[in-house]
Please model this.
Amino acid sequence: MSCRPGHPPRHPDFDQGNAAHLVHGANSPRAIAARAEAVHAELLVAAPYLDDDKFLPAVSRYLQAAAREALLHSHIVTLSESKGAGEVPSRVWEQATAATRLAAKLGSDLGLDPLGHARIRALSAGAQVNESSVEELQRRGAELRAAREARNAAAAVPEVAESSAEPMEPHELESTHEG
Model:
């Protein structure tokens, strides 16, 4: 690449997909996706139930947060070993702390820690409804509806009988209102 015609190139152009500009990769969708694949493989070993499609959005959020945390942690370790922990910018420490908290929260929501796992087990145990109990509820509902309709029909019969009496003449109505 040359800045002007006729001058020698400053440096060769970068190839597509290079990583020369990355410092730690925690803000790079490509670096996060690559690390998320590795995290996903480990996740399915620890919690194979998360491979179900219904968990896909939650797992995706967790994988991104865990990948970002891993990238930042790796950068901090590398920089600390080469230059010392004092050379790690405070913003990187803040990003790493936030990423760790988010990954921990999302992991807990997926049941990856003891408390989250217990919460999921308690919720799923209370939510299991088998088909026989659904059928029983439907049968009971039909019985209640039939009983209510029978009561309403029985209550409507006296009203019909009273309204079928002969209509009063206008002069009879006036005598009933005069006191």
